[in-house]
Design brief:
Blueprint lengths: L1 E5 H5 L2 H6 L3 H7 L1 H19 L8 H7 L4 E5 L18 E11 L3 E11 L5 E5 L19 E4 L6 E11 L15 E7 L11 E12 L9 E12 L16 H11 L4 H8 L8 H12 L13 E5 L5 H11 L3 E5 L5 H4 L1 E5 L6 E5 L1 H4 L4 E5 L8 H10 L1 E6 L2 E6 L3 E6 L12 H5 L3 H5 L3 E5 L5 H15 L26 H10 L7 H14 L3 E2 L1 H16 L3 H4 L5 H16 L4 E2 L1 H23 L9 H12 L7 E3 H10 L7 H10 L3 E3 L4 E4 L2
Helix pairs in contact: 3-4, 7-8, 7-16, 18-20, 18-21, 20-21
């Protein structure tokens, strides 16, 4: 039987504290004795409720009762793993960490029956903490030789399991660059198999110590914890017995103030990585990925986003900002990561032949986001991401172990083209050398191109200077951002214009901790539903994408793109804490997708040089006639010569002319001697 004890209720019970005035000190400094007193009181209370007719055999009643187990809630504030020292030995503390290793379930003896080898006298001996303890002397014959009877009825064993937890690294601990601290935890009885690798848990238990081997006349001690209570933070808010210790009343008031603001979306976009100038649409896509969709209506609610572009445009800083404000963020670099480091590792114990599972970055970021920088440097690890990105789990079948672990995480990746800069004469797939199945799993793909612009460069310099002079509010009189923007996008209603105009206002960015609490609250409690009007709008736009013959800049539109649009629309409604995703949300998502497709198509069609008139336009018109009925038609060098001769198009060096068309993106080279015309 497991009984839950809430320490907050006992601390506020004046009657209980009058009877036990030093209870707070006793539960912290002498937890074993205090918990045994609770168990004895509960056991006597249970015996008092048994009918008197059943008291004929008290021993049978006691034997029939299950062992009393306690579950302690709200014991003390959570202690960081780096603060655990020897002064906590024997005390009851709570720690929080991520499970990185789970051992096999074993049986440990609590009571063992021994028999004297000379007179066959049986004796029951308690095994403290599972340590094998033999009777010292027989009470009849005085011999000290005993043997254990493992099949005796009085023999009692319980389940035993060990796990290893790792601390969460954040900016508050100031320990970047060091090894993350790990801690061993021992589980007994009903606590066994309550967590898996990658879980975020809070453990309450008693600190124990074990001495290691002596080395150079020095004795080292390693601390571990004997767990009393384990709370899985993934499910703690679904349990009535657990209380929300992370959200305070001040946090709820702050979230309510943000909810009451007029323009929530521009405010949150401006608060995400305010050090990076511009890129409002890209920040909006990353912000939607952090909120995610509704997990109740689809097999996955994670939104994957890919940033592709020239170096030095702030892709890594935006990813790091996303990992800091997410509920659970993990930041890795692709050039130093392996497939097992991303998914799961199977290791063999040093002393035993048992295998243990060690989670990778995707498993540790379950129900969070995993930011992968230098995504183009991990070509050998792409196959390991296919199952995780779509099925939201990772399977392992090695050394006779077959299991599956959840990876419900949003992947935010940043990649550079293979040649350092984006080649406009090639498609996006050829610039990245990624397979179409992998690219199709990304809901949003943004293309960032670095083009010298005197006005943009001047605004960027002013933004950086103001930030380094500690002026978090950008004054409109000092920087008139987006005044050069095309009037076609500043119509007062589009998403891009609303995000751009918000930068001109004197808006203070939200602190990182406040933005993190707001995202955490929205993901836990807001479950928006799609309205019929929004569904119809998304359906029309999806059918429009399917009819396009240019494949949206080289990207094929699969059926999963429709599910991605639904997730983005739900995330747009969740961002404003609304329970319905309306047409306005669908319109913003459609505009965001059009921005991505138009950006990719524009930079693949338009090169550095502008299109000339005369012979070039004449040859383009010939190609338009040839591809009027079939836009997917490809041409060889010989067929292009025949088209030029038929249309009476003459040039001195035809091969050089075709190369220039390829550089400008008018003819894309799809093979060694095949070209495709981009209308």
């Amino acid at each position: 039987m497991v009984f839950t004890i809430d320490m907050c209720e006992l601390y506020n019970d004046t009657t209980f504290l009058n009877e036990w005035y030093d209870f707070k000190q006793s539960i912290f400094e002498n937890p074993e004795h205090t918990l045994n007193c609770f168990k004895l009181a509960i056991h006597q209370k249970i015996l008092g409720t048994v009918p008197k007719t059943n008291l004929t055999s008290p021993m049978s009643i006691i034997n029939s009762l299950s062992t009393v187990r306690l579950k302690i809630l709200n014991c003390e504030s959570v202690v960081c793993l780096q603060d655990l020292k020897t002064n906590f030995y024997g005390k009851l503390v709570s720690v929080r960490g991520s499970v990185i290793r789970v051992g096999h379930v074993k049986h440990i003896a609590e009571w063992t029956v021994f028999v004297c080898r000379k007179c066959n006298l049986q004796k029951i001996v308690k095994q403290p903490q599972g340590i094998y303890t033999v009777p010292k002397k027989c009470s009849l014959c005085g011999t000290s030789k005993f043997r254990a009877i493992l099949d005796a009825p009085q023999m009692k064993t319980v389940f035993f399991q060990t796990l290893k937890i790792q601390e969460f690294l954040n900016d508050d601990q100031n320990n970047r660059g060091g090894m993350p601290r790990v801690f061993d935890v021992e589980l007994m009885d009903y606590l066994v198999n309550t967590c898996i690798p990658g879980d975020d848990i809070t453990v309450t238990g008693i600190i124990k110590g074990a001495s290691n081997t002596k080395s150079r006349k020095k004795v080292s001690f390693s601390l571990y914890m004997e767990a009393v209570t384990i709370i899985n933070n993934k499910q703690r808010f679904q349990s009535r017995n657990s209380m929300d210790n992370e959200m305070s009343m001040r946090d709820y008031i702050t979230i309510q103030k943000i909810y009451n603001t007029s323009n929530i979306f521009p405010l949150l976009v401006h608060s995400l990585c305010p050090t990076i100038y511009g890129h409002e649409m890209i920040k909006a896509g990353l912000l939607l990925s952090l909120f995610g969709g509704n997990p109740e209506h689809s097999k996955r609610d994670s939104i994957h986003t890919l940033l592709v572009g020239d170096p030095g445009l702030g892709k890594s800083q935006m990813l790091q900002a996303c990992s800091k404000v997410a509920m659970k963020g993990v930041y890795v670099c692709g050039n130093t990561s392996t497939s097992s480091g991303l998914t799961i590792t199977l290791t063999k114990g040093s002393k035993t032949s048992n295998f243990t599972l060690e989670p990778g970055a995707l498993v540790l970021a379950d129900k969070g986001c995993c930011c992968i920088d230098e995504f183009d440097k991990m070509s050998k690890q792409y196959a390991a991401l296919l199952e995780s990105m779509e099925q939201q789990c990772v399977s392992v079948a090695k050394s006779g172990i077959v299991c599956s672990l959840p990876t419900r995480t949003s992947i935010l990746a940043a990649a550079n083209p293979i040649n350092g800069r984006f080649n406009r004469s090639k498609t996006l797939i050829k610039n990245l050398k990624m397979t179409p199945p992998l690219l199709s799993r990304f809901d949003l793909i943004f293309l960032l191109i670095d083009e010298p612009n005197e006005h943009e460069d001047d605004l960027l310099c002013k933004h950086v200077m103001l930030y380094h002079t500690r002026k978090n509010i950008i004054n409109k009189a000092q920087i008139n951002i987006h005044q050069h923007t095309d009037t076609s996008i500043i119509d007062g209603s589009s998403l891009r214009s609303r995000l751009a105009s918000s930068v001109n206002e004197n808006i203070s960015a939200l602190p990182q901790s406040v933005l993190q609490k707001y995202i955490s609250y929205a993901r836990r409690y807001v479950k928006p539903k799609l309205t019929k009007e929004a569904a119809a709008m998304l359906q029309d736009y999806y059918l429009e994408l399917r009819k396009r013959k240019d494949k949206c800049g080289g990207l094929c539109i699969y059926n999963r793109k429709l599910e991605a649009m639904i997730r983005l629309t739900e995330a747009r409604a969740k961002l404003e804490l609304r329970t319905e995703a309306t047409e306005v949300d669908a319109a913003d998502v459609i505009e965001l997708l059009r921005y991505t497709f138009d950006k990719i198509s524009c930079w693949q069609v338009v090169g550095n040089n502008r299109r000339t008139t005369g012979k070039l336009d004449g040859f383009i018109q010939l190609l338009r006639k040839e591809t009027f009925f079939d836009r997917q038609k490809t041409f060889t060098m010989e067929s292009l010569r025949e088209i030029a001769l038929t249309g009476k198009f003459a040039t001195k060096n035809f091969s050089q002319f075709i190369s220039k068309l390829n550089e400008q993106g008018i003819l894309l080279q799809t093979g060694s001697n095949t070209f495709k015309f981009v209308p």
